[in-house]
Amino acid sequence: MKSYKIALIPGDGIGTAVIEATWEVLGKAARGAGFSLEGTGFPWSCDFYEKTGAMMPADGIETLRGYDAILLGAVGWPKRVPDSVSLHGLLLPIRKAFVQYANIRPHRLLPGVEGPLRASAFDILCIRENTEGEYSGAGGRVHNGTADEVAVETAIFTRKGVERILRFGFEQARKRRGKLASVTKSNAQKYSMVFWDEITALVAAEYPDVEVANYHIDAMAARMVMAPESLDVVVASNLFGDILTDLGAAIQGGLGYAASANINPERNAPSMFEPVHGSAPDIAHLGIANPIAAIWSGAMMLEHLGEPAAAAAVMSAIEAATARGIGTKPGEHKTNDITSAVLAALG
Ligand code: IPM
Ligand code: MN
To answer: Which member of 173, 191, 246, 317 has the lowest number of beta carbons within 10 Å of its beta carbon?
Structure first.
């Protein structure tokens, strides 16, 4: 029987509950499809930081390298550990070390979920550059604490980085409805964003079957609210994609439905799957976190592992549950009830 080695990092806050739920659903889907998932849990988190002084052990990255995929809950508990420490000690190094340059985030309404918009028939795939750009981490501060203090943080765009994320986007567009929106701010940022536009045009020439449109980030934000049905694949830089995908989560009914995959398309290191919502410390341990975003991320993991039938079964089970009104309104159902409904729908 085929078996996949999965590294489980529940992390902080509601991460634990949603990963437990997801693992149960994925286990059942795997059994149904005739393969197995072998999970190894890693307690890396803010708890771990308080005990050891690090978010993960020094050889954490090397340990994870041996797995077929990573399933992550959430990282961060700002009252206990500053986000700048916890995120830069766990989530962000994994994305960078494993060159997970494509952060894929689907935005569409599940059946039974009422979004805030009038439009209901949208199906957007946001593809966020995930390793460089505005979140490269290049910068510094001088004259600290004085009136002359200066902070710089440089956005870094490389030909290799921009080209590969756009090419990835074009490949996705080809598999979907053949439309790609490239998002920049080239009317104001005349070096990096003009560079991005130029590379979009270069790569577009290789995909004459894909219809390309260029948008500025501000106009795209408005379009996602006013005409989301006009969008298919949306490709954006790290910061712009970060912001657009919270907007995407909002129009799909909330962060409880926003799934994501941090993909290494070359498959020379594991990819990582995580819900977008974060650790939500305020509701941790209340048993009310919506596990759907995490379960959907788990379905994306199965797809990436080459198990599309099991992935589709999980998605159908989520949709069957929400179509019955389970997990469609904040706080109405407990994590366990939503998980049970998805499990039951899996048959
Ligand atoms: C996300 C999150 C992270 C990001 C933060 C927590 C660093 O907002 O996955 O969207 O910006 O990448
Ligand atoms: Mn974000």
So the answer is: 191
Q: What are phi and psi of 55, to 5 degrees?
A: -75, -30
- Six token digits for residue 233: 């694949």
Q: Give the span between the Cα atoms of 264 and 165, in whole angstroms.
A: 11
Q: Which ligand is nearest to the CA of 137?
A: 1
Asked if 45 and 76 count as a contact pair (C-beta separation under 8 A), the reply is no
Digit-coded pLDDT (tens) for 148-177:
999 999 999 999 999 999 999 999 999 999
Residue 27 Cα, ligand 1 centroid: separation in angstroms? 27
Query: Residue 50 and residue 90: Cα distance in Å, rounded?
Result: 14
3-class secondary-structure state, position 124: strand
Tokens read off for 12: 């902080």
Tokens of 191: 């070096």
Q: Coil, strand, or helix at residue 137?
A: strand
Is the entire prediction scored with pTM above 0.85?
yes
Give which of 155, 133, 134, 153 is closest to 142, Cα–Cα: 153
Q: What is the largest CA-CA distance in the chain?
A: 65
Among 72, 88, 91, say which to mutate for ligand 1: greatest number of ligand atoms within 8 Å of CB. 91
Query: Which phi and psi angles does 258 have, rounded to 5°?
Result: -90, 110
Q: What is the pLDDT of residue 347?
A: 83
Burial class (CB in 10 A: 0-12, 13-18, 19+), 8: buried
